[in-house]
Amino acid sequence: MPRQGSFKTEAVVLRSIRFGEADRVLHLYTEDRGRVGAVAKGVRRVKSRFGGRLEPLSRVNLVMHEGRGELCTITSADTVHAHASLRERRAGIERATDACEAVLRLFDAAEPNRPAYHLLCHELAILDGDAGTATYAQALAFRLKLLLAAGFVPELAACATCGEREHLGAFSAAAGGVVCPSCEAGSFPLGADAHSFMVDALAKPLSEAPEAGEQALRQADRAVSETAEHHAHVRLRRLM
Fold first, then answer.
1. What is the C-alpha separation between 197 and 180, in angstroms, rounded?
2. Rounded to whole angstroms, how far apart are CA atoms 74 and 37?
3. What number is the average pLDDT over the span 137-152?
4. Which end of the chain is less packed: N or C, by CB atoms within 10 Å?
């Protein structure tokens, strides 16, 4: 039986869609319930009780009512973090929107994944705090860690097919990660710089994302995108 009644949760607003004359349907990622769809009634009215608290990229505390329909109804909203600074910068908005879109696509179930939720909150806070962090490399580091939280992180320490630990110069999403020359059928080249970037991005804190050259980042981007498509069956928009 589906749960019914009111409940409280913390959430990030991933997406907002106009609905009817004054309402909005929100895609939320919550700390303890995973993906949730909800309707904010009257939110588009000038004197809405929600004000601007339910804008995309906002982190909020919510009270919602869960009925028999697919959408919950938001009855109360308080701001945890509005991320006002990142909204003043185009690069910040674009990277934050990319992050929310990746979560929206990779985590579509009503099941909690606290590592993914806290990773998203951390990413938004980083982008809000420092304009210089809204880089291609930092966005890729976030996506790699998101794959880890989703259980789809690629094998980078040894050939994903045979276990060979040397001469790992290619990547195969079908195989599950880097591959050696003997197993590289269907793969694409992954240079040493791209390989090192991916390893370091997973090992270092998100706030200390490594840098790399454009070619290496493009190769890493392709590896991340093809991994998500092959194993999670979702397409992530390329970051460049």
1. 18
2. 10
3. 97
4. N
3 state DSSP class of 7: strand
pLDDT at 51: 78
Beta bridge partner(s), residue 105: none
* Inter-residue contact 173 to 231 (CB < 8 Å): yes
- Tens digit of each residue's pLDDT (9 = 90 or more) over 69-82: 889 999 999 999 99
Rounded alpha-carbon distances, angstroms, from residue 127 to 37, 144, 150, 184: 25, 17, 22, 37
Pick the CATH number of 5-81 from 1.10.1530.10, 2.40.50.140, 2.60.40.10, 2.40.128.20: 2.40.50.140
Which 8-state DSSP code applies to residue 116? H
Predicted confidence (pLDDT) at residue 3 exceeds the cutoff of 80: no
